[in-house]
Specification:
Elements (H helix, E strand, L loop, with lengths): L1 H27 L12 H6 L19 H20 L10 E11 L3 H9 L4 H7 L4 E14 L5 E7 L9 E4 L12 E7 L8 E7 L10 H13 L27 H12 L12 H15 L3 H13 L9 H5 L5 H5 L5 H7 L16 H8 L5 H12 L6 H16 L4 H15 L4 H6 L10
Antiparallel strand pairs: 1-2, 1-6, 2-3, 3-4, 5-6
């Protein structure tokens, strides 16, 4: 294990050095691409770059000029009228979930335990027969599907663990696996002894069926609101990426409306994958798309680009925490428009098994950080706490909003508010099902046990 750790360390160091080298090579020192958005002389006199800011800001303190914000406000006014007529889907169902056992046995009697699991030994008999096994008796387990790189549907069964990136999960391409009755059954992963690790077996045991419940109407309406504002059929990038816009034109603000539309089309035909976390080109591309989309009144593309910046939804070959902390969220830009930002952001966080096609989902960590900068802190806090304590909501979504509150509070700079929020969270923690409480307590550990 130590040998493999050293090798991994060397590889990570090499990647980090290569990443920084590529980062500077890609154009950080290229004067033509230093500015994310070039401005006319009058705009340069009125606004400028805020020191240490990620993107150019204007006198209004936003990354969009007052003129652009006015254009967006007019669009939002018409969208609000549209929303009154909008009849979005509100029939959402929670992810399949259950309370089950998580089992780990190492070194001794592993093969024997494997045979017993294959023969579906009752859990009570397993505990008596293998007293050295590590067992968590009550854990939250999800079941769902995704499409893999080979365009095949894969069923996953996963332990929900907020504090560990190595949560146990099992994937299968078996067609009937998703409908299989797993009550009182075992699913396991067996590892043979090799030069890097010993023999072990890790498994799920399901004393109950997986269940799904209807998302309560008040939360389904939040998802519906987000779908009215974010057209699920819209997309930032074209299906066919056949362009390469190397240099963003300095005079883009002075272009005709027709030429701006051509520029937007070219930007949407150029998708950038970051080499690493320090490669900021995808975010720069997104802000350019958002700016030009706003100028050309393309609300769907603007909002999706802005939300991608907020959620940091970009393809990267590798990422790191230092780079992540330097990326802002820009919630203020949304709050200065006449939209219900809380409903919008909450609506993209609920997880369901039957979402709208191409439904936009947000990142818990990034949205939590964004909400820490909201001007409506009291309202946001109360609504999060209400969702966490709501017994009509499925356990998985309650856990997600618990995680959202943790992320939100972690980014609050005022220590008194931090302490106050911890006390508020402790109250709603007491309203959670008993089996979840143990899972939500942070423990420093190298594995799920």
């Amino acid at each position: 294990m130590k040998k493999r750790t050293k090798i991994i360390g060397v590889v990570i160091l090499f990647i980090a050095v290569a990443c920084f080298s590529i980062y500077y090579y890609l154009g950080r020192l290229n004067n033509e691409n230093k500015a994310l958005v070039s401005k006319s002389k009058s705009e340069i006199q009125k606004g400028g770059y805020t020191k240490f800011s990620e993107f150019q800001t204007f006198p209004n303190g936003l990354i969009y000029s007052e003129t652009t914000m006015n254009k967006l406000s007019h669009i939002v006014d018409s969208l609000n009228l549209k929303f009154k007529k909008c009849t979005p889907r509100t029939n959402f169902d929670s992810e399949f979930q259950t309370m089950g056992y998580l089992v780990l046995l190492e070194k001794r009697k592993v093969k024997q335990a494997k045979r017993d699991m294959e023969n579906q030994i009752p859990m009570e008999d397993f505990i008596k027969k293998y007293p050295k096994a590590k067992i968590k008796k009550e854990v939250l387990i999800l079941k769902g599907t995704y499409i893999n790189n080979q365009n095949k549907e894969v069923v996953y069964i996963e332990h929900v663990n907020l504090y560990n990136y190595n949560s146990f999960s099992i994937d299968s391409e078996e067609k009937k696996f998703n409908d299989k009755d797993l009550q009182n059954k075992w699913l396991f992963r067996y590892n043979k002894k090799d030069n890097y690790s010993g023999e072990w077996i890790e498994a799920f045991y399901f004393p109950n069926q997986f269940t799904s419940k209807k998302l309560p109407q008040k939360y389904a309406q939040m998802m519906g609101y987000s779908n009215c504002l974010i057209d699920p059929d819209a997309a930032i990038y074209k299906k066919e990426l056949n362009d390469s816009l190397e240099v963003f034109p300095k005079n883009w603000m002075t272009l005709s409306q027709k030429d701006k539309l051509v520029l937007l089309d070219r930007l949407r035909s150029t998708k950038i994958v970051a080499f690493c976390g320090m490669d900021s080109r995808p975010r720069e591309q997104a802000i350019r798309i958002a700016l030009v989309a706003a100028e050309t009144a393309n609300w769907e593309v603007f909002l999706m680009a802005h939300l991608n910046i907020m959620n940091d939804r970009f393809d990267r070959n590798i990422d790191n925490g230092l780079a992540q902390r330097s990326r802002a969220t820009y919630i203020k830009e949304l709050e200065d428009l006449n939209i219900n930002v809380t409903d919008l952001l909450f609506g993209i966080l609920f997880r369901v098994r039957n979402p709208a096609e191409n439904q936009y989902f947000g990142n818990i960590g990034r949205v939590g950080r964004a909400l820490s900068e909201t001007k409506n802190q009291h309202e946001v806090e109360q609504r999060m706490l209400s969702i966490i304590s709501d017994p009509t909501l499925d356990d998985y979504n309650r856990v997600l909003f618990y995680d959202l509150f943790l992320n939100y509070n972690w980014h609050i700079k005022d220590k008194k508010i931090n302490k106050s929020n911890e006390a508020k969270l402790a109250v709603v923690y007491g309203k959670l099902p008993n089996y979840l409480k143990e899972e939500l307590i942070y423990k420093e550990s190298n594995d799920d046990f």
